[in-house]
From TrEMBL, chain A:
Residues 195-323 form the GGDEF domain. InterPro entries: Diguanylate_Cyclase, GGDEF_dom, Nucleotide_cyclase, PAS, PAS-like_dom_sf, Rev_trsase/Diguanyl_cyclase. Residues 112-167 form a coiled coil. The lineage of its organism: Bacteria, Bacillati, Bacillota, Bacilli, Bacillales. This is PAS domain S-box protein. PROSITE patterns: GGDEF, PAS. It holds the Pfam family PAS_9. GO terms for molecular function: diguanylate cyclase activity.
From TrEMBL, chain B:
This is Sigma factor sigB regulation protein rsbQ. Gene3D superfamilies: alpha/beta hydrolase. SUPFAM superfamilies: alpha/beta-Hydrolases. One of its GO terms (molecular function) is hydrolase activity. InterPro entries: AB_hydrolase_1 (IPR000073), AB_hydrolase_fold (IPR029058). The keyword Glycoprotein does not apply.
């Protein structure tokens, strides 16, 4: 039996509870290139590096003492030539004749530990790859948030620009361009539904005189006040715009000739009676109602002609193009 | 309060008025005191606990920020004592725990009657000034590597994945007879905190009386380190044990208990005077 143990295919050793070697088999000696005298009665730590001693102290002794055995502990031992020999150690304590003994079996694991280290390195690489991926993702998300924010900013600016493009800066009313677009869409609507609509062109009487007498700042103030009056006295569906200079225009959906005349007269009267801050102001109005023979140009021309008539008839009055002699 | 007792797996037993607290060292847990602690239960209230990250502590309480330095462990000790309302205690610390106890006593001298240091070291690494701590930096690197290869799940445990899945169930398998039951990354960090710490500068700040128990053939902490501590620690008593190794409380519990009790009785007489 002893002969077979001596040549068993694993290193075998008996130590006492202090770690002194009392038996070692030939396989173990061959593994480390030691002679029996090198190891017998020596401390097992004499063939360990500092790190292995610590590991042995921290785990092997305490666990043997607490639980009686240690399984599959990985250690490296020093060979007689100073090389490292990776081994797997199983230990078990038993009560010998006089004192506690610990039986130890060592299996060399040179190739196995290389594999395991390869796996560990692969694991580290994967961890690193995950970390990099998470970082990249984080950056990408930040970038995405940035793009979204800029997009929103852009849309906001666009909306602002669009509104600026159709707004008259002095009065805050819509400008001529916007009005023409609205007029065109009402004309389209008219030919689909035959719903009537009218428009009024209004001109401030003697505006040049206001400018000349009180200055341009007052002139501008009058324009703004007139714009506020128009806004305050028009419906949501009406389109009020500054047509140019002291000319304003208002599109009245669903209004026929008579209704448009009433609306125009009402506005004329409101302006006349309004509490103007600098000087009394009146307006002349030219009204026109769209007919199926009209175009966007013809209806504006008709309203203009009616306005001209109001002016030449003494101002501060309303004329509808349908009432003009020439039109019929 | 309650959750600190759970967090640190605190166990209290014994009938004394005075409290004796045992702190385990690196790589182990309160089980290491099983041959020593019961010897004190007739005269003392005995307190055992696991530092967060060790033994059966609550691993979810672990953070690299708090436990990246010894300060986190010092907090654990102080919080356990506060949760127990322990009063002035006798603290027994093994290895790094001796330094944890000492640092705690510097912060809160009123909590400590005395410190029993088993195999203490203020600095494990050798240094150019001629200080011989026993370890070269390469030894520690090798040790961390060896430890990693010994842990259960070193290959399957993907740290970033675990971080991404906080619900990942902790190792539930009972691994009582294995030293690999704790989280390898946490244990590795504790090893770094232990081996790269340097408390030589702190020794002068400690006032609490202390007993230094040094093993005669401690292959981890050279005898010179115990002597170094004796000469730099005020009110310290140095005892060289017959015990060999670094775990006298496991390998030579009788001697360990005897020396602690001798010190405590002499200390008591001094104290009464």
């Amino acid at each position: 039996m002893d002969e077979r143990l001596d040549r068993a295919p694993c290193g075998y050793m008996t130590i006492n509870s202090q770690g002194i070697i009392s038996y070692v088999n030939q396989t173990f000696l061959d593994m480390g290139g030691y002679s029996r005298d090198d190891l017998m009665n020596h401390h097992i730590e004499s063939i360990m590096s500092m790190a292995n001693k610590f590991l042995f102290h921290t785990y092997f002794y305490p666990f043997i003492q607490l639980y009686g055995h240690v399984d599959e502990m990985y250690l490296t031992l020093k060979s007689s030539k100073g090389e490292s020999i990776p081994v797997l150690l199983n230990g078990k304590s038993y009560e010998g004749n006089e004192a506690e003994k610990i039986e130890c079996v060592f299996v060399k694991m040179t190739r196995r530990i290389d594999y395991e280290k390869e796996i560990r390195n692969a694991k580290r690489e994967i961890e690193e790859a995950y970390r990099i991926k998470d970082e990249a993702l984080e950056k990408l998300e930040a970038l995405h948030r940035d793009v979204e924010r800029k997009q929103e900013e852009l849309m906001r600016l666009n909306a602002k620009l669009e509104s600026l493009a159709v707004t008259d800066t002095l009065t805050g009313l819509k400008n001529r361009r916007y009005f023409i677009e609205k007029l065109d869409s009402h004309i389209d609507h008219f030919f689909l539904s035959k719903t009537p609509f009218s428009l009024l062109i209004m001109d401030i009487d003697h505006f040049k005189k206001v400018n000349d007498t009180y200055g341009h700042l007052t002139g501008d103030q009058v324009l703004r006040e007139f714009a506020r009056i128009l806004e305050a006295n028009s419906k949501e569906s009406d389109t009020v715009a500054r047509y140019g200079g002291e000319e304003f225009i208002i599109l009245l959906p669903e209004m026929n000739e008579m209704q448009s005349k009433q609306a125009a007269e009402r506005l004329r009267k409101i302006v006349e009676e309004a509490p103007w801050s600098s000087c009394p102001v009146t307006i002349s109005v030219g009204a026109a109602t769209f007919t199926e023979h009209d175009t966007n140009i013809s209806i504006l021309a008709k309203a203009d002609e009616a306005l001209y008539t109001s002016k030449s008839n003494g101002r501060n009055r309303v004329t509808h193009s349908a009432d003009l002699d020439g039109s019929s | 309060m309650e959750n600190i007792l759970v967090r640190n797996n605190v166990k209290v037993f014994g009938q004394g008025e005075k409290t004796i607290v045992f702190g385990h060292g690196f790589g182990c847990d309160q089980n290491m005191w099983r041959f020593v602690a019961p010897q004190f239960e007739k005269e003392y209230r005995v307190v055992l606990f696991d530092y967060v990250g060790s033994g059966k502590s609550d691993l979810t309480a672990y953070s690299y920020e708090r436990y990246g330095t010894i300060e986190g462990y010092v907090k654990d000790l102080l919080e356990v004592m506060e949760a127990l309302n322990a009063g002035k205690v006798i603290f027994v610390g093994h290895s790094i725990s001796s330094m944890i106890g000492m640092m705690a006593s510097i912060q809160r001298p009123e909590y400590f009657e005395c410190l029993i240091m088993v195999g203490p070291s203020p600095r494990y690494l050798n240094d150019e000034s001629g200080y011989y701590g026993g370890f070269e930096r390469e030894d520690v690197e090798e040790l961390l590597d060896m430890m990693e290869m010994n842990f259960v799940g070193w290959a399957s445990y993907l740290a970033p994945l675990a971080l991404n899945n906080p619900d990942r169930p902790l190792l539930t398998k009972e691994l009582e007879t294995s030293f690999c039951s704790t989280d390898p990354a946490v244990t590795r960090k504790f090893a770094e905190v232990t081996f790269f710490s340097d408390h030589r500068e702190d020794l002068a700040k400690a006032e609490t009386p202390s007993l230094i128990l040094q093993c005669s053939e401690d292959s981890i902490v050279p005898v010179g380190v115990g002597k170094y501590l004796e000469s730099h620690l005020k009110n310290s008593t140095f005892r060289l044990m017959e015990a060999k190794g670094h775990y006298p409380h496991l390998s030579h519990p009788e001697e360990t208990v005897r020396l602690i009790k001798e010190y405590l009785s002499s200390f008591k007489e001094d104290y009464v005077d």
